[in-house]
C-alpha cells in the first residue's frame, strides 16, 4: 500500500494588497493564511506518514518580494526531508521559470522538474514513476501532455501537469489538452493543477484537480485543501479530499423581503451570518454579503450605505469570527412593479424608472460613468463593485442614487 499527497495552486505569499487594505485589523490573518494552510498540509503529511508528496504547479504566486518566501518553503521541505518523504514539484504559470528569479538550494528530498521537456522521476524504493514538466514561461499555449513519456512497466505511473485541460470557466488556457490525451498515455493517476476548484475529472484513469489550498477572494468559496491518494500496486484505491484552509470564504445573501424596519433587517442578516459561520468548521469566515428582497427598510439601507456597511460589520463582530469583505445592496421598495404612486417624491422615482426603460438613456449613462471611472484604479473599481457596468449594475446604480436622495430628502423634511 502506498499513499501520496497531491496538492496544487498554493500561491505562497500571495500579495492580496487590495484585500488587506479593506481588512484593516484582520489584514494579518489574510497575509498569513497561505503559509498557515501550507503548514497544515505539511503537518498532515507527517502525521499520516505519507510515502510521496507532489505539487502540481503555482507553489508561489509570482516572483518573491524577498527571500523570506523561499526560506519558509525550504524550512517546510526540511521537515519532510527529516521524515524521509520525497517531494516532486512542477512550476505553473504563476511560478514559471521566467517568473520566479530568486532561488535557494532545496533539500535533497525535493525533485524540481525541468522546463525544457517532460521527464520521468523514480523516487527510490516506492515503485512509482512520476512524469512531469515545469512551465518555462507564464504562458504555455502548447499541448505539452502529448510529449509526456510512455509509462514505466510494473510501476505506478503518475502524470504531474499544470493545465486548463479542455477549458475551465475563469481560468486561462494554459497547456490545454483533451481528456483523451491524458487517458491515452496509460498512466494510473493524473495529478493536475491550475483550476482552483476541486474536481475529479475521471476515475478511469484517475484525473484530479485538488483545488487551491487556501481561498484568496470571494470567488473562491467553500472548503479548500488537497488530495490524499491511496494506491495498491498500480491500482488507485481512493483519492480523498482533505481540507487545510485557514480562512473560509462565503457569499451570503440575506433576503430581507417583508422586513418592516431596519432593526428587522439587521436581525435577519445576523442570523444568516451565524448560520454560515457554523458551517465553516471552526475557521474564520470572510463574507461577501448581498442584501436583497423588497423591504420597507430599502430607503434606509440603500440611502445611507456607509452606515449600512458599518451595521453589517458590527453584526459580523457579534456573530463571531466573521469579516465582511463587501456589502452589495440589491434591495427594492415593496410594490414598485408599476409606476410609483403619486407622492411628494414621485417625480424623482418616475425619472429613474424612465431612464431604466430607455436604452439610449442607459447607453449615455454607461458612457458617462465609464469616462468618470477611467480615472479610478482597477482595485478601487472592484472594491465598489463597478468593474463591469452591465445592465443590471447600471440599474442598481440608479436605484441606489434614488434611494440615497430619498433618504436625505426624508431626513431633511422631519
From TrEMBL:
Keyword terms of this UniProt record: Exonuclease, Hydrolase, Nuclease
Gene3D superfamilies referenced in this protein's UniProt entry, alphabetically: 3.60.21.10
Claim: Nuclease is one of the keywords in the record: yes
Calcineurin-like phosphoesterase domain residues: 2-197
Pfam families named among the record's database cross-references: Metallophos
SUPFAM superfamilies recorded: Metallo-dependent phosphatases
Coiled coil feature spans: none
Molecular functions per Gene Ontology: exonuclease activity
PANTHER family reported for this sequence: COMPONENT OF ATP-DEPENDENT DSDNA EXONUCLEASE (PTHR30337), PHOSPHOESTERASE (PTHR30337:SF7)
Protein name (Swiss-Prot/TrEMBL): Exonuclease, putative
Native source species: Rhodospirillum centenum (strain ATCC 51521 / SW)
Amino acid at each position: 500500500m502506498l499513499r501520496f499527497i497531491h496538492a496544487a495552486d498554493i500561491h505562497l505569499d500571495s500579495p492580496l494588497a487590495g484585500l488587506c487594505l479593506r481588512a484593516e485589523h484582520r489584514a494579518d490573518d489574510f497575509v498569513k493564511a497561505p503559509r498557515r494552510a501550507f503548514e497544515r498540509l505539511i503537518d498532515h503529511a507527517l502525521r499520516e506518514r505519507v510515502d510521496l508528496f507532489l505539487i502540481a504547479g503555482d507553489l508561489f504566486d509570482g516572483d518573491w518580494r524577498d527571500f523570506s518566501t523561499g526560506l519558509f518553503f525550504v524550512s517546510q521541505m526540511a521537515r519532510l526531508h527529516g521524515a524521509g518523504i520525497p517531494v516532486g514539484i512542477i512550476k505553473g504559470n504563476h511560478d514559471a521559470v521566467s517568473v520566479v528569479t530568486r532561488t535557494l538550494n532545496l533539500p535533497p528530498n525535493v525533485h524540481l522538474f525541468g522546463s525544457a521537456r517532460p521527464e520521468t522521476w523514480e523516487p527510490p524504493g516506492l515503485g512509482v514513476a512520476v512524469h512531469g514538466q515545469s512551465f518555462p514561461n507564464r504562458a504555455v499555449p502548447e499541448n505539452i501532455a502529448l510529449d509526456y513519456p510512455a509509462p514505466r512497466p510494473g510501476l505506478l505511473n503518475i502524470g504531474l501537469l499544470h493545465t486548463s485541460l479542455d477549458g475551465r470557466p475563469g481560468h486561462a488556457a494554459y497547456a490545454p489538452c483533451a481528456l483523451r490525451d491524458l487517458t491515452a498515455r496509460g498512466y494510473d493517476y493524473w495529478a493536475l493543477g491550475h483550476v482552483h476548484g476541486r474536481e475529479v475529472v475521471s476515475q478511469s484513469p484517475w484525473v484530479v484537480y485538488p483545488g487551491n489550498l487556501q481561498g484568496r477572494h470571494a470567488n473562491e468559496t467553500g472548503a479548500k485543501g488537497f488530495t490524499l491518494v491511496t494506491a495498491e500496486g498500480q491500482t488507485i484505491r481512493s483519492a480523498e479530499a482533505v481540507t487545510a484552509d485557514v480562512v473560509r470564504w462565503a457569499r451570503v445573501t440575506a433576503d430581507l423581503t417583508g422586513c418592516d424596519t431596519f432593526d428587522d433587517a439587521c436581525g435577519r442578516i445576523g442570523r444568516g451570518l451565524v448560520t454560515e459561520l457554523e458551517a465553516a468548521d471552526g475557521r474564520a469566515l470572510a463574507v461577501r454579503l448581498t442584501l436583497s428582497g423588497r423591504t420597507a427598510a430599502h430607503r434606509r439601507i440603500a440611502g445611507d450605505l456607509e452606515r449600512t456597511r458599518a451595521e453589517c460589520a458590527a453584526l459580523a463582530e457579534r456573530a463571531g469570527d466573521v469579516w465582511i469583505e463587501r456589502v452589495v445592496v440589491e434591495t427594492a421598495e415593496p410594490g414598485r412593479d408599476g409606476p410609483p404612486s403619486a407622492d411628494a417624491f414621485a417625480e424623482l422615482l418616475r425619472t429613474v424608472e424612465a431612464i431604466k426603460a430607455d436604452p439610449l438613456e442607459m447607453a449615455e449613462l454607461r458612457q458617462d460613468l465609464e469616462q468618470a471611472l477611467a480615472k479610478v484604479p482597477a482595485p478601487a473599481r472592484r472594491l465598489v463593485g463597478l468593474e463591469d457596468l452591465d445592465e443590471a449594475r447600471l440599474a442598481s446604480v440608479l436605484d441606489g442614487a434614488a434611494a440615497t436622495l430619498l433618504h436625505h430628502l426624508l431626513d431633511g423634511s422631519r
